[in-house]
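Appendix C. Worked example: alanine--glyoxylate transaminase
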Amino acid sequence: MSTFKQAPHNLLVIPGPIEVSDEVLYANALPPLAHAGAEFIPLMGDAIRMTREVVFTQTGQPFLIAGSGTLGWDQVAANLIEPGEDALLLNCGYFGDSFADCLRSYGANVHELRADFGKAVSQHELEAALKAKKYKLVCFTHVDTSTAVLSDAKMIGEVAKRLAPESLVILDGVCSVASEEIRMDAWNIDVVVSASQKGLGAPPGISVVVASQKALKVAETRKAPVAGYYSSWKRWLPIMHAYEAGKPSYFATPPTNLIVSYRQALLEITKDPKLTLEDRFKAHIHAADRIRNTAKELGLKLVPADAHNTANGMTAIYVPEGLAPSDIVSRMAKKGIVVTGGIHKENKDKYFRIGHMGVTAVNPERGDLDRVIAGLKESLAEAKASKQASQAKVENHKLPAWRSPSAPLGGSRSIAVAAKL
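Step 2, the predicted output written as structure tokens:
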């Protein structure tokens, strides 16, 4: 353990990037390592192996590639879909829209099941779609960061296995891996897409994808060439195999410092003797409950319409009528607490979002949630008071001068009345 401590900074509680531990940040600050050198190779191998543990897979193949979570969509589309093939996408918000756009850019025919704002696609809707047509891919965003809606991954995998066993089930877990339970093998999930900067608790910059052997076989036997170069699993698979076997290999330079940092985050997630993965999931549920209960006490409404479909790593909250998200976000920022507004294209001006993943949820001794809750209460009170003051000023401006609270006693109307008497 190092004695390194992070410099004082604003508390980052957006839905990612998130706060990271001192050890994770320190690991990222080490001198660069040679990507094919004896020091780095075993660290990369560790990161690959521990990634499997987080999503509960024995045989899934991790791909750790420099890039954002968006690169995961490209990997799925480039390797698993061929022009003219059909994909079913369960759309719960902004990131469902973007995933669909990515698939279409590679020639997929995308059929969307669109849930109403704040809701998830139901089991009945999914079953009806899979009975009506066969799909190469069944894709969904586990937690849509735009709405905090949580899709039922276990149900989706089970329904697909029962009604469309030939389909590949693709889970976009950028905002859910390590903060929500994902049992890849048991739930019939073929690909998990994620990124380093959210529940995985590392700095941004690593695209994290785990593919089942079934998915790898589909990619290997496709008829059309892989519609990508950097995103091609045929190029990356030997590299990942080599690193895990402790051997040097090269296709493109991995983000060595970020991998070291990510490995440290995975050690904290999977090797903590006091906290199992199940304990961490419970900690995220507890953190979410604290934020939700606070919102309820303040008379605020959550964006997700159903508790069963509400994420545990983030919360989306409607602002009261008469206020804008900026009224809350800007006031919390002045208190050193960084939250963010909505991004859903139709409702972005109606709500704001708070992230509570990783160390913020799991390490209560940091006091992050206490600060967030206190800051939210104060900011809401200040915003309401400011609004009331502004309304009172407007109303006062509308009054005739003789009725204005600021008019002197015995004003002009009183004089005029007296003169008539």
